[in-house]
Specification:
This protein has 88 residues and is mainly alpha-helical. It has one domain (1-62). The chain has one helix at 73-86, and strands at residues 67-68, 71-72. It has a two-stranded antiparallel ribbon. A hairpin with a 2-residue loop joins β1 and β2 (71-72). It starts with 66 loop residues before the first strand and ends with a helix.
Length: 88
């Protein structure tokens, strides 16, 4: 598989499928991914800034080391779990 950097501007790729694609170090700016599905995707070291996650769902995923606004998600989930146990 060759790697030729491409730049797409003002382009619609609606309903496109990306299978066995390497997007390492790719940059996404002003991109609409509404209702997109990501499965078996590596996001190690990825950064999301000024991103709308409203209504987004994360399921069956490795969250180890993931941070939201500098806070480890594992710590947030641990605090949530402890508070939930206390309210029972």
């Amino acid at each position: 598989m060759t790697s030729t950097p491409m730049k797409y501007e003002h382009t619609s790729l609606a309903a496109a499928e990306f299978l066995d694609v390497n997007l390492a170090s790719a940059r996404f700016e002003d991109v609409n991914l509404k209702s997109a599905c990501f499965e078996n995707v590596g996001l190690v070291g990825a950064t999301f800034k000024d991103t709308n996650f409203g209504g987004a769902t994360i399921e069956d995923s490795n969250l180890e080391g993931m941070k939201i606004n500098g806070i480890l998600v594992s710590e947030l989930l641990d605090v949530y779990s402890k508070r939930k146990q206390q309210s029972i």
